[in-house]
Amino acid sequence: QTKISVFPRKSLVLPMLKHLFSGHTVYPSEDVIRQQESFSAIHIPHQIRRMTNMEILSHVKVSHGGMELIAVGQLLKLRKLGVVIHDTDKDGFDSLLHVIGKLNKCLRSLSVQIRSPSAADGSNGFDMSMMYSTYPRLLESLTICGIKSGLPPWIEHLHQLTKVTLHDTSLTESAIHVLGKLVGLRYLRLRHRSYVRGDLTISTREFKNLRFLFIEGPDIVSISFDEGAAPRLERMVWRFTRMVSLVGIGHLLSIRELELEGDCDLEKIGVILRDIKAHPNDPSLKHIPAAGN
Q1: Going edge to edge, which strands form the sheet with 222-225?
Q2: For residue 214, which of 265, 258, 268, 251 has the smallest C-alpha distance?
Q3: Neighbouring-strand partners of residue 80
Q4: Which of 5, 92, 100, 21 lies closest to 55 in space, CA to CA?
Q5: Contact at 8 Å (CB) between 172 and 201?
Q6: Distance between CA 122 and CA 103 in Å, rounded?
Q7: Burial class of residue 246 in the structure, from the number of CB atoms within 10 Å of its CB (0-12 exposed, 13-18 middle, 19+ buried)
Q8: What single DSSP character describes residue 17?
């Protein structure tokens, strides 16, 4: 949470440094549901190639062309990488894909954020599918923000992937089915503009091991769970600006906590409350009205 954007050109080299975190997030208003936060990160240190013990580098900003990423590809102990790229920097994005390929045997966590002047834009031109043969096979956590070309096709082969966070990805229903087949997935966060349809359906026999589901933003207004869907889901948080319906709570065999944040018809809350009371697990229901109401 500092506003530092760059180290001095002749910055100190810390060869034993293992963890470097940076980034500054600003919320334009208290209502984080309706307003998109702005995020900044620091440029990659000039002497990063000498910091061979680096294990965590998150988040760093890629300058145009991404030449400094070449050195990052030499950090073979790196297990967590978070990168911010401008939406016009196609060369920088291609350099990032090359680096991820070189680190495919050590990376456990990857966050790629594409930034544009307009928060509603995102990039259709960036595509992670081109690194199909060198994807990070041991990845456990994946965050994608601002890439609208769909999920990378190699995601279905990430058998150790447990956490996925999506933001400004404009996914279709078919992508949700792909995520639903990831047997290792435990945590799923669908943030602002991650899904293009207003209704989200979790289908039968999908998300078999999901424990936590977080949904945020004005796009999704209806959620339904088919019978046999997400049998191990224990906690669900839904932050919305408008809720039309929430159906199928009774189908969630392991549900323990349900949190709803936003303004909605109290009658709908009543319907949900009846489903909660009828559930054999006696799950808790928490409703938080939108800020300022």
Answers
A1: 199-202, 222-225, 245-247
A2: 258
A3: 56, 109
A4: 21
A5: no
A6: 26
A7: buried
A8: -
Residue with tokens 């595509």: 127
Could you tell me the sign of the dihedral formed by the alpha carbons of 21, 25, 31, 32, in that order?
negative
Could you tell me how many residues make up the chain? 293
Q: What is the pLDDT of residues 142-182, one digit of tens each?
A: 999 999 989 999 999 999 999 999 999 999 999 999 999 99
Query: How would residue 62 be classed by pLDDT, with cut points 50, 70 and 90?
Result: confident
Is residue 107 within 8 A of residue 85, CB to CB? The reply is no
Given a contact cutoff of 8 angstroms between Cβ atoms, the answer to whether 179 and 207 are in contact is yes
The structure tokens listed for 176 are 């949700």
Does residue 58 come out as left (phi exceeding 0), alpha (psi in the -120 to 50 range) or beta?
Answer: beta
Which of these, 6, 85, 9, lies nearest to 46 by C-alpha position?
9
Show Cβ contacts of residue 290 under 8 Å, excluding neighbours closer than 6 positions: 31, 33, 241, 261, 262, 263
Instruction: Using DSSP, state whether 143 is helix, strand or coil.
Output: strand
Q: Closest by alpha carbon to 143, among 132, 131, 155, 130?
A: 155
DSSP string covering 129-172, please? GGGGGG--TT--EEEEESB-S-S-GGGGG-TT--EEEEES--B-
pTM: 0.91
Alpha-carbon radius of gyration of the chain: 20
DSSP, collapsed to helix, strand or coil, labels residue 222 as: strand
